[in-house]
Structures are given as structure tokens and as C-alpha cells.
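Write out the 3D structure for:
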Amino acid sequence: MSVDLSNADLALIETVVDLTSAVSPLLTFFTITFVGAVQAALATLGTALTAVAANFMRLEIQKEEDRRVWSAYGAWSACSVPCGTTGTRTRTRTCPIFPGTCPGSATETDNCPDNSACK
């Protein structure tokens, strides 16, 4: 199959080819520049999101640590001996939000007040 093209048609085809050849490097440049800019923007966004997530985790951990607070001690127990100065007594407190995670002991022990006059 043959196609007969006029000189004008051939000239138009040559012009299109020349324009395509001239524009192609520009399109490649703009494509690479655009893709590079998008990649840089995404990298910056990723860094920012990582920082936000790290801050959030730090704040959550801090909030959890702030909630690890003992309740007030309860009343003292009865003295371990009914009379004298050698007995001990105890009182306890609780770690209400995160049981077992508050620092220190839940129990406090002390010597009983002097009760030597007891008979």
C-alpha cells in the first residue's frame, strides 16, 4: 500500500518532527524537575510526620508517667503488740491507674507510738 504525500504534507510532517525533537528535552527537564520537587516535598512531609509522631509518643509516655501517682496512705493498722514500745504498725496506698507501676512501696511501716503505760 502506498500513500502519496504532497510536498506540503511532507513539510508539515518535518515541522512536527522538528517541534517534537525540540520540545522533548524540555518535557523531560520539566518532568524530572517536577518529579524531583514532588519527591523533595514528600520527603519533607515524611520527616515532619515522623517528628509529629515522635512528639505524640513522647507526650503519651509522659502522660502515662504522670498518671503513675500513688493514692494517699490509708489509716495506720493496729500496733503489732498491745503494750510497749517495740511494736510496729503499717499503712498502705494504691497505684490506681496503672497498678504495679508506681515507684516505691505500697506499704509503709513505722514504730508504734509509746504505749508503755498500758497494763
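The chain has two domains: 1-66, 68-119.
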